[in-house]
Amino acid sequence: MPTIALPTFLKILGKSSPQKVTEYSRYLKPGGYNFYHSLHDAAYAHTIGGESFEECLDSIKAIPRVSEQKYNVNAFKQLGKWITKSGGASFFAAPATTVASPKGHITVKLQPAFGCVISGERWLLQLFYAKDATLSRSAVSLGKRMMEKHLAVGDFADCKVGILDLRKREVLSPQLDELAMDLLLDSEFGWIDSFFEARKEQVKKAAA
Prior knowledge:
Elements: E1 3-5, H1 6-13, H2 17-25, H3 37-47, H4 53-61, H5 66-86, E2 90-92, E3 97-100, E4 107-110, E5 114-118, E6 121-128, H6 137-150, E7 160-165, E8 170-172, H7 178-207
Parallel strand pairs: 1-4, 6-7
Antiparallel strand pairs: 2-5, 3-4, 5-6, 7-8
C-alpha cells in the first residue's frame, strides 16, 4: 500500500482527472520519495530537538541533489522568518497517524512538523511549501478536517490545527463544513481506489 504525505495528497486533490492519473501512476510500483523530507526533519530538530537554526540549515545544505537542496533551503529559511515573526512561540512534539482509503490502495500520512503555543493556544501545524503549486481553499479545508478528526484527539483535543504555508509565512485554518469535507474525502478516496482497481485489471488482462 503506497503512503503519501498529506501536502502531496492535497496538491493532487486540485488537479484534473488526467493529471491525477499521471500523479497516482507513480505509486503503482513500490517506492516513492518525499521531496521535502529534509525540511520536515530540520524543522523538528530545530523546534523540538533544540538544534540551532544554523545547524539545521547546514544539514539541508548537505543534500547532494541541487534542486532538492535549493527548495528545502528556501522553505527552511521561510520557516525561520515565521518563527521570528511569531514572537516567542513555544513548541511541543505533535502526534502522527495515517488514514487509509476504504480499499486500502493508498494511505495518507498525517505528520505535523511540530506543535506550538501561540498566544496561549496550542496548535498542530503541517508545513506546506511547493516550488510550483498553491493549495486551494477546499484542499486546505480538507487537510484541516483530516487533522482535526484524527490528530486533535485525546491529549491533543484542545489543539487547533492548521497548515503553515511557508511561502506566505501564514497559518491557514479556514472555517469549514465538516460534512462537506467528509464527503469530499470519501469522493477522493473512491476515485483513487477505482483508479488502482482499474489499473490492476489492465495488468491482469495484459498478462492473460
